[in-house]
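Work package 3, deliverable 3.1, input record:
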Amino acid sequence: MSDSHAAAVHSPDHPPELRHHFMTMEQQQNTASLGMWLFLVTEVMFFGGMFCAYLIYRLKYFNDFAAASQSINVVWGALNTAVLLVSSWTMAMAVRCAQLGKQRLLIVFLIFTMFFGAVFLGVKAKEYHDKFVENHVPGASFEFHDKLLGHPDYVPNQGHTQMFFSIYFAMTGMHALHMVIGLGLMAYLVIAAGRGKFSTAYYTPVENIGLYWHFVDVVWIYLFPLLYLISRTKG
Amino acid sequence: MSENEHHIVPLGLYALIGATLLVMTGVTYGVALIDLGRWNTVVALCIATFKATLVVLIFMHVKYTNEKMTKPVIAGAIFFLILLLTLSLADFGTRAWL
Amino acid sequence: MKSWLLTVDHKRIAILYMFSITFFFFIGGIYALLIRLELLTPAGDLVQADTYNRLFTGHGIVMVFFFLIPVVPAILGNFLVPLMIGAKDLAFPRINLMSWYLYIVAGVLLLHVIITGGVDTGWTFYTPYSTAFASPKVIEAGLAAFIMGFSSIFTGLNFIVTIHRMRAPGMTWSRLPLFIWAHYATSLVMILGTPVIAITLVLVVLERLFHLGIFDPKLGGDPLLFQHLFWFYSHPAVYIMILPSMGIISELIACFSRKRIFGFNFVALSSVAIAVLGFLVWAHHMFVAGMSVYAALIFSFLTFFIGVPSAIKVFNWTATMYKGSVTYETPMLYAFGFLGLFTVGGLTGLFLATLGVDIHVTDTYFVVAHFHYVMVGGVVMAYMGGLHFWWPKITGRMYPESMGKLAALIAFIGFNLTFFPQFILGYVGMPRRYYQYPPEFQVLNVLSTAGATILGVGYLFPMVYLLWSLRYGEVAGDNPWNAAGLEWKTSSPPPTFNFDVDPIVDFEAYNYDELKEIPVER
């Protein structure tokens, strides 16, 4: 029982994008928007579980977490944060172009967003590689010998530092997975825009995928200080 | 988007927000290099929340939407996240009291 | 066939769900049968201890994730929500179909786990046993539950958006049937809670596959972290199960008392209250696990509150029947069963919430009896009542009424004989999840198993006559019960787009005073 009907007459009041269980385009757009926001709620709770794990263990094993955090490269982290923020700006610009009906510029900004997203993932890959080389990846070969700034006599606990890295890889890995999915969604947008699917009357997918991308950015806005900046001084 | 049909965010505002986000990232990094004890975390998270708020209000158009449900939905998500964190902390944080 | 597998019609998807969920109910029932057979004798003689562990784990996973969570929302909710609000379909019909496919994929994965030996961690997957010592099948079982979780999330998302955006003109929030209010509240729980168990299961899988030892005690991991994250969802999950059932009961009691539900606003808002309060109590599952006693006090205190909105509903339903024209058709018999059994189940929850009592009865059959009273005596009774009530709307056929009454009676007797002895068993000390027990507990166990057999008959019998009715049952008109509600203003079954003319609502819910005729005595 699909919702096509035999003699599909699409009048100006009934554009082809209007699906048949909706009365108006406005209802359809509002519905899609609410749906995306509710999906983002589920994403907040999804990442929230990992933030909970992080919170508990950071409080319990602060010094070991601080030492482990100091061993990840804060410059790459800060750079990546900037890259992702720029990609959020280009995405916002893309949505603006869609609102104004500027199809070619829309595609340009989408591609820029994808570019910056890819840069982020590339830097992430480099960071992961560095951790692998230093034997900071959780598992049988894990070994942590770095010192805690300002506490030369403190010997960081092998288990607790490995716990930090378990959380680090779980959280950044899940975040990266969401970015990869975002890149895929943007590729779809580029192709659809290229085919002239969007107009000033209909650009719902652009807006909603934009919301998704901004959400992924917000997650990273919190991940950066929580993972990279536990303690960067001798105090 | 019906809620934004009549509101296009000005280019200047987008650029300003983008620049602010980058500057605040730099500030976060800079402040982390100053020893403020336990306040380092507080400051870092406050700046993060400020940045997140800018993204949500301007980039995600929440400031301009006519949709009545958007803000309650966001508030709800934050509320339940805080609930998960605080009530779990009620256990872990008070174990040592016994 | 292809039109069914590619359908986006919410009514067909509901029926697809009915087949798959009923199938898993059978699987869960077979597990129950094996458990009760083992417990006929004090010795562990039917199966070995390891096997018994797999039996109660399988029973729990199947019944919780694949039956209780989706049964009312995915079957009756999917079918009725658009009809009751006057819409042509749900907000996202394709996502609705995807929800069903996710259920099927999860189900196939779980069947594979079952066939290849199953897991023995309990449906609760506690760490570090599940992460460090149990069989690798935990990964697959966890993934099955994870995928099933997304099926649930998308259903909830669909319902919330639909109820906000797709109501017919004139259908204000205060005119919405309580079934809709119930599903709205349920959906809130689905989207807020399910993602947390999703990430928790992912973390278990990541620990097993990639050594990300977030729950590993050797790294300083705390088993209680898993339990907090697990129960943050799994407690609200029980409200996902009971809230839609309560929605059904409101519809049944209104119709068979020929009266508007007393205290409509209280019943509607109590659904939302239960949904929210349900998120504040989860650690009452962990009182003896080693949590802080101060936190235990807080959670015990909060748990007492959740009884209040549930009690408000029971009082309002009772008040509805007072001076109503009550008749005793099959759906109403199930509703009466619900009222009694849910009340017992709910009250025994208060005993468990009391810290001192909980020390004594936790992890005993007292707990098992408590949750089966609310889950089976509550959810399943309500589902059976709703299934019978809306059967003519869904299929266009009436079931044989005397058979219906008989089956309800058999189920009620069987249920009580199965589970009441378990309250006693738990109180005198029989632990749960044990395959053997001291000989002095045998009489009660035998009674319980006898009851289970009768209960099984009580469930098989309707399957037979409901199927029979598809061919031989009396053809049903638009409104065989003369009930209020938009779903009864269209044909049985409804046309593809639900209503021949787009409805406009200018009447309150449960306007039985305007529906003058009294239904024919069946």
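Chain A touches chain B through 54 residues (CB under 8 Å).
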